[in-house]
Amino acid sequence: MNYPKHLVAFVLAVTISGFFWYGQAQIAAHQLSYVQQGSTAVADNSGGVQLGFSESSAQVPVPNFCPGADLVVPLGLKYGDSGDDVRSLQKFLAWYYQLQGQDRTDLISGNFLLTTQSLLKQFQQDNDIISTGTLTWETYDTIRNKLAAHCRPRITSVDPLRPQRGDTVTLTGTNFPIKTPATIEIWQTDNGWFDQDFKFKATSTDGTTLSFVVPDTARVTGNHDDRFKIQITTAHGSSNEKWIYVFVCAYDWNRNVPQQGGCTGPTTSPTLIPTKTPGGGGSGGLPKSCSDYGTKASCDANNTNELGIVVCKWSNNACRDVGLTGGDNTPYCWNTYSNHGTKAAGNCNKDPRCTYDWSITGGGHCTGR
Question: Which of 74, 99, 271, 326 is the most buried (most CB within 10 A)?
């Protein structure tokens, strides 16, 4: 009997399709049988970790290592999707269920077919999520939390600990992303209104180091606090905190010697003691400090340095230093040059203890160096 050609073609297509989907179902069932049996991790010869199954009937344990700092599984994936996002989901499932060898290779295809759908349903069931086989919000959130538990970045060391402006600081640690930029943040905590906060984007070349350059503007809003906290943030959360101590020669010439390079600023302090010697003079005829003037009259008469800048002021029944080298000159500069604008900036910048910060709202303001 001769059948119409279009009928033969239709029957043939249905038969081939049936074999294909039967094969997919068999692969999925094969994968799930492994998952339900339990699994263990074994090392390969390349230095990485391959994932494989044992014949144990125990519940599958969550692996205790990070599958990759750049691994992020997006929301909303479903059957029929394809591409790198699907491949990320498959890598997560292979990690979670510790697939190895051909099982792992077959799964990570970039195509969301029955194998991936079945394994995702199993993951949802194992984590008390409604088993839909699609990447729902609850599923996405659970995957993100499990990755964060093992892939959160950690800083183990900082070099140098006492950098200068413009120096490169290298952070060593674990789980630093290679493809997706991490955020490095450094910030002050003890400089009052003048706390600074800087953020940088960086990627690692090896997953264990990240670098940034100390800004040229670090500590320009006051020299009281040389400490900056450091923290790294990635898609998997924020790291522990470490410290650096930014060395500025103009402030720290006599303390906190930097760990690398020479002093890139003045190595001596501006003279902030009076130019006139009080009665009897100091040791060797040198001027004494403001506190050596015991009366208001003597304090007012000897209150300037060799630059003609007022450095002593009578306050609370004592002659006191207006601004101290190595201390915080901001209160003095802020109050002494309280106007705003170009003229105020010119007067402010003439004082060796002060600098005009145009970034402060309201036309800028004079702050300590």
Answer: 99
- Tokens coding 101: 């060898």
Which domains are present in the chain? Answer: 14-151 (1.10.101.10), 158-252 (2.60.40.10), 271-278+287-324 (no CATH), 329-369 (no CATH)
Report CA torsion sign: 267, 273, 278, 282: negative
Contact 236, 152 (CB under 8 A): yes
Spatial neighbors of 262 by CB under 8 A, at least 6 apart, are: none
56 DSSP β-pair partners: none
Phi/psi at 31 (nearest 5 deg)? -60, -45
Give me the residue label for tokens 């901001």. 330
Each of the 369 residues of the chain gets a pLDDT tens digit; together they read 555 655 555 555 555 555 444 555 444 444 444 444 444 333 333 333 333 333 333 355 678 899 999 999 999 999 999 999 999 999 999 999 999 999 999 999 999 999 999 999 999 999 999 999 999 999 999 999 999 999 999 999 999 998 988 999 999 999 999 999 999 999 998 877 788 999 999 999 999 999 999 998 898 876 667 899 999 999 999 999 999 999 887 677 656 666 565 665 444 433 333 343 333 333 333 345 677 788 888 888 877 754 455 667 777 787 776 544 334 566 667 767 767 777 777 778 777 777 887 877 667 778 776
